[in-house]
Design a protein that fits this description.
Blueprint (H helix, E strand, L loop, with lengths): L6 E4 L4 E2 L5 E2 L3 E7 L9 E5 L26 E2 L4 E2 L4 E5 L14 E2 L4 E2 L9 H15 L6 E5 L1 H12 L7 E4 L7 H15 L16 H15 L2 H7 L19 H14 L4 H13 L11 H7 L3 E7 L7 H13 L3 E7 L13 H13 L2
Parallel strand pairs: 5-8, 5-11, 6-7, 11-12, 12-13, 13-14
Antiparallel strand pairs: 1-4, 2-3, 4-8, 9-10
Helix pairs in contact: 1-2, 3-4, 3-7, 4-6
Length: 369
């Protein structure tokens, strides 16, 4: 078993954000699989989802019980075949898994940024990824791949760095959030900022707003599933016994499951980071003016192919929103393929083992080789 290690790069010089704010120093955490060829044209960038990280595949040690979040798709002979491709995944700007974010130390004060960290956008995240590729000597990607928030990053790559995109794969994503998506994110954010332990975002070294973060995760987790999946997994089954306890403890299995997911989440994620990444997702809007800088025209001219995939039970970013991406791409003459995969498990389907998705990626990447 080949082990993977998390690496970190400090970018050369400051980063200017879309808001006009500046970060004087930015660290990027990333992991890689496979080997970069001499021509440096076999690189695939994987963009992670909202609460993901750079650990997309493999294990850190022989005793590591849990592999990376997309281990079923990255590796020798898998959908992203590391015998052929050099796969990269970096933690997004604003995250809390090694890249600069609100829990990082502000060089100006020597203390964690907290809520003094500037608001970042998907464009800012992608700008940092592009600068990481500069450090790695990669001028153009064979492919950029991402699901959900990662799919937004793929679209931002298309708009802001079309000359560096050889091909792209967008999974279960959208060109902009609907009012429903923004509403769920706002309720999640309010659950954090309403926790007395949030302390205006400056809770580092003190009691963390774990209750607020846990509730925020519970809210988000509901959107990742589907009615059918929750019915099949839980129904109205009770956690213990067959009679009601007539109190407010978690009695139904679905309640217990959500409590478990919330409690587990606070051990690995930072409350402030969730505020920042959900806000970045809400700000994202590439539907209007996608080609205002001629990006799609250039992608069409260089014959960059694209694959857009949706899932039948995904109500967070349903099929019609993915078809909108296809429609815009086709209008501008891009080579784009679309597939709706039958799945009952909701939005999270793109993260789960799938022979269909593996087959699609293998064929698509072979086409662009």
């Amino acid at each position: 078993m080949k082990l993977v290690e998390k690496k970190q790069h400090v970018l050369d010089g400051p980063v200017t954000l879309e808001s006009g704010e500046h970060l004087s120093e930015v660290t990027v955490a990333y992991e890689t699989w496979g080997e970069l060829n001499k021509e440096k044209n076999n690189a695939i960038l994987v963009c992670h989802a909202l609460t993901g990280d750079s650990h997309a595949a493999g294990r850190y040690s022989k005793d590591d019980l849990k592999p990376g979040w997309w281990d079923t798709m990255i590796g020798p002979g898998k959908g992203l075949d590391t015998d052929k491709f050099f796969v990269i995944c970096s933690n997004i700007l604003g995250g809390c898994m090694g890249s600069t974010g609100p829990s990082s130390i502000d060089p100006a004060t020597g203390k964690p940024y907290g809520s003094d960290f500037p608001v970042v956008t998907i464009h800012d995240m992608v700008q940092v990824q592009a600068r990481l590729l500069d450090l790695l000597g990669i001028e153009k990607l064979h492919c950029v791949v991402g699901g959900s928030l990662g799919g937004m990053q793929v679209l931002s790559w298309c708009k802001n760095y079309p000359e560096r995109v050889g091909s792209g794969v967008v999974l279960a994503s959208t060109m902009r959030h609907t009012a429903l998506s923004i509403a769920f994110n706002e309720v999640a954010r309010q659950s954090i900022v309403s926790d007395p332990n949030w302390q205006g975002g400056h809770y580092y070294g003190k009691t963390r707003p774990d209750i607020g973060l846990s509730v925020a995760r519970m809210i988000g987790h509901i959107t990742y599933l589907s009615d059918e999946a929750m019915h099949q997994k839980f129904g109205r089954r009770l956690q213990n016994g067959s009679t009601f306890s007539f109190d407010f403890d978690a009695e139904f299995q679905v309640e217990s499951y959500l409590h478990y997911q919330g409690a587990k989440f606070v051990d690995r994620f930072d409350a402030n980071s969730l505020l920042y990444v959900t806000k970045a997702a809400d700000y994202f809007d590439i539907k209007e003016g996608f080609n205002e800088n001629g990006a799609l025209t250039r992608l069409a001219e260089q014959k960059s192919p694209f694959l857009i995939v949706s899932y039948t039970s995904d109500w967070l970013y349903p099929t019609y929103q993915n078809r909108e991406i296809v429609s815009v791409f086709k209008r501008h003459g891009l080579d784009v393929s679309f597939c709706e995969i039958e799945a009952s498990c909701g939005h999270d389907a793109f993260l789960l083992p799938s022979e269909r998705l593996t087959s699609l990626l293998t064929g698509f990447l072979g086409k662009g080789a």
